[in-house]
Amino acid sequence: MEFIDSALASVWDKVKAGQRLTFEDGMALYASPDLSGVGRMADFVRRKRHGNIAYYVYNQHVNYTNVCSNRCTFCAFATDEGTGNAYTWSVEEVKARLMERMDEPVREIHMVGGLNENLDFDYFTGLLKAMAEVRPEATIKAFTAVEIDYLSRLSGLSLAETVAELKDAGLAMMPGGGAEVMSERVHDELFPKKIGRDRWLEVMETVHAAGIPTNATMLYGHIETLEERVSHLITLRDLQDRTGGFSSFIPLAFHSKNTKLSHIPPTGGVDDLKNVAVSRLMLDNFDHIKAYWVMIGEKLAQVALSFGADDLDGTIIEERITHTAGATSAKGLTRAEMAVMIRGAGFEPVERDSFYNHIA
Ligand code: V47
């Protein structure tokens, strides 16, 4: 491979040989002006794993409450109880939202919410049971590690016992949010009330030990440094070496509208593609890298499929967290629109379930 940036040649030697990249390699990739060089290497790795296939899932997002006691500065979705836009859905209301879509082949329910101190532990197990009853054929992918930690404190149970109770009630997978960027500096500045790196990793390790796969994410494009990004990726890679429980990684592009960080400009397309490509190259033990079209837009998500991503996430139906923060992408897409996006990018669309089994 020819590179504009000669610093990439030694990284390419390792990528070709299937060798693990170091912190310094990660820094060289992020710092490189050679976007296409970084992208071509990521595409090489992506094609070795997934050929010409690009995945999507028929999923439905459910955000049961926006009331949250953490109030992270980067979040526009969360609010306090009693404010005009605060809401909390009862179990019956959540059921009704799922039932509105019974004519659609939803395979996964992605459910996350705020830390609402007015809800008790039974609400959460009741919610999972009700969802499993209404949609037995869909996988319930719910709660970030932050919510799991909160539920353990709420229930008075250990982490392992909490996870066992939730699994019994229907929890089958967990999304990857809540770690943001694993740096004490960023944590203290942007989300001091939220659990930190060590607890996030402990929750994930416990969940993986219970046989529940999870995803992982990184929120980029705010105050984090390139060093903090690379060390976040290496920390995830280390945990994956121990547990093998991570399914996919999703870089999340920060949207600042309606947040306390509204002075921060949107991420650029080059940085969005770099994050996809660098994560594919650094996370050699993750099968899947998602280009989350909600955050980077439908058009760039198509391009990201040639920069290391093999999955566009899903139809979603109604996205709230990023749209409250100014996302201009659609709130949801149809199955046909997902397939058109993927074909238009030169890939073969494959509808999957939560565990990447192909849907015939
Ligand atoms: O943890 C919050 C992020 C996450 C903003 O696992 C923001 O399949 C951008 O984790 N701008 C939740 N991002 C979303 C998430 C996710 C999304 C899609 C798929 C999966 C998966 C997981 O959203 C939070 C936080 O990092 N977030 N506010 C914002 N203003």
From TrEMBL:
One of its GO terms (biological process) is menaquinone biosynthetic process. Pathway: Quinol/quinone metabolism; menaquinone biosynthesis. Residues 54-284 form the Radical SAM core domain. Its EC number is 2.5.1.120. Keywords: 4Fe-4S, Iron, Iron-sulfur, Menaquinone biosynthesis, Metal-binding, S-adenosyl-L-methionine, Transferase. It is an enzyme of class 2 (transferase). [4Fe-4S] cluster binds at C68, C72, C75. It catalyses: 3-[(1-carboxyvinyl)-oxy]benzoate + S-adenosyl-L-methionine + H2O = 6-amino-6-deoxyfutalosine + hydrogencarbonate + L-methionine + H(+). One of its GO terms (molecular function) is 7,8-didemethyl-8-hydroxy-5-deazariboflavin synthase activity. Its cofactor is [4Fe-4S] cluster. InterPro entries: Aldolase_TIM, CofH/MnqC-like_C, Elp3/MiaA/NifB-like_rSAM, F420, FO_synthase_su2, MqnE, rSAM, rSAM_sf. S-adenosyl-L-methionine binds at F74, E180. Gene3D superfamilies: Aldolase class I. Binds 1 [4Fe-4S] cluster. The cluster is coordinated with 3 cysteines and an exchangeable S-adenosyl-L-methionine. SMART domains: Elp3 (SM00729). Radical SAM enzyme that catalyzes the addition of the adenosyl radical to the double bond of 3-[(1-carboxyvinyl)oxy]benzoate, leading to aminodeoxyfutalosine (AFL), a key intermediate in the formation of menaquinone (MK, vitamin K2) from chorismate. NCBIfam families: CofH family radical SAM protein, mena_SCO4494. PANTHER family: AMINODEOXYFUTALOSINE SYNTHASE, FO SYNTHASE (COFH). Belongs to the radical SAM superfamily. MqnE family. This is Aminodeoxyfutalosine synthase. It comes from Desulfoluna spongiiphila.
